[in-house]
């Protein structure tokens, strides 16, 4: 454990230096940053949370997942106060991150030369888009620059949606709002819109740790974006987080029903449940009228370890 902490610290301290020499972190560097993840990975090294887990996140509340993460010690995973292109939609996917910074010519030249050597083409703000795959969400720290800080317009927006069937989370701005809104299925959580072009901004790295407002995001994090804000869930906690949130939804549904029926008082439902209430809840689950969001085995295994 001590050696791992030292290695992580060395990696993070060297992050800017690394970004000045390579456009993206290597597979091994990404694996080191996300060492708690034990499952499948994308070819670039990012954790690959399964599609069915991503789909389940669409039906849970940000508050419930946020509470779970806080309980695990992750207190800096949420950012709110967004301009949302389609606020009634939910977007869930795997993070591809990009770091932008105010332009410094010597560093910008190194990055561009390195990208050219790697066969990257076009302006640097198109490079993160080139690596996107289906199910990814493009997450970029544009250091909240609005005027001359627009990371994409409708052309790049079309490319993003074609590759991911998702959209973007930008701590920064975009242009061509009308054109972006015409891309059916595309969505964006952004800070502002401006008609200007991108200027005095440089790409500092792809799939590196980034800051999105008050949140820290790693490549491969699960992005849960809703009307209430964005939550960035470490891949290693994704399955436990979603079933915890799903259980809370079921528990609340049961509690609301029993309160309407007058079977229990608010004090009984809102405090530690008695064995009688737990038993009644299990019976209620056995006759649940809809489809459970998880398998019954997953639910039973989860309840064995829950303190209620």
TrEMBL record:
Indicate the secretion signal residues.
1-20
Name a Pfam family for this protein.
RraA-like
* SUPFAM superfamilies per UniProt: RraA-like
What start-end ranges are recorded for coiled-coil regions in this protein?
none
The UniProt keywords, alphabetically, are:
Signal
Looking up InterPro entries in the UniProt record yields: RraA/RraA-like, RraA/RraA-like_sf
* Protein name, as recorded: Regulator of RNase E activity RraA
């Amino acid at each position: 454990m001590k050696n791992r902490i030292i290695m992580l610290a060395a990696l993070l301290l060297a992050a800017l230096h690394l970004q000045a020499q390579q456009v993206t972190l290597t597979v091994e560097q990404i694996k080191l940053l996300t060492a708690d993840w034990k499952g499948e990975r994308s070819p670039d090294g990012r954790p690959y949370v399964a599609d069915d887990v991503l789909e389940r996140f669409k039906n849970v509340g940000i508050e419930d997942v946020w509470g779970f993460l806080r309980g695990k010690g992750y207190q800096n995973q949420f950012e709110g106060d967004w301009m949302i292109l389609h606020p009634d939609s939910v977007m869930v996917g795997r993070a591809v991150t990009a770091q932008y910074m105010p332009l410094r010519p010597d560093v910008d030249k190194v990055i561009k030369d390195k990208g050219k050597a790697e066969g990257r083409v076009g302006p640097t703000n198109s490079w993160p888009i080139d690596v996107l795959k289906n199910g990814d969400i493009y997450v970029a720290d544009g250091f909240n620059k609005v005027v001359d800080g627009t990371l994409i317009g409708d052309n790049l927006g079309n490319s993003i949606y074609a590759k991911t069937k998702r959209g973007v989370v930008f701590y920064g701005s975009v242009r061509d709002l009308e054109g972006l809104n015409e891309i059916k299925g595309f969505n964006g959580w952004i800070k502002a819109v401006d008609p200007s072009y991108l200027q005095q901004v440089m790409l500092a790295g792809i799939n590196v740790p980034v800051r999105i407002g008050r949140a820290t995001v790693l490549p491969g994090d699960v992005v849960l974006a809703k009307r209430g804000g964005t939550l960035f869930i470490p891949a290693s906690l994704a399955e436990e987080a979603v079933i915890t949130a799903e259980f809370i939804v079921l528990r609340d549904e049961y509690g609301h029903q029993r309160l309407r029926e007058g079977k229990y008082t608010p004090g009984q439902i809102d405090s530690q449940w008695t064995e009688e209430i737990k038993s009644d809840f299990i019976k209620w689950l056995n006759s649940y009228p809809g489809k459970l969001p998880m398998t019954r085995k997953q639910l039973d295994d989860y309840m064995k370890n829950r303190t209620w």
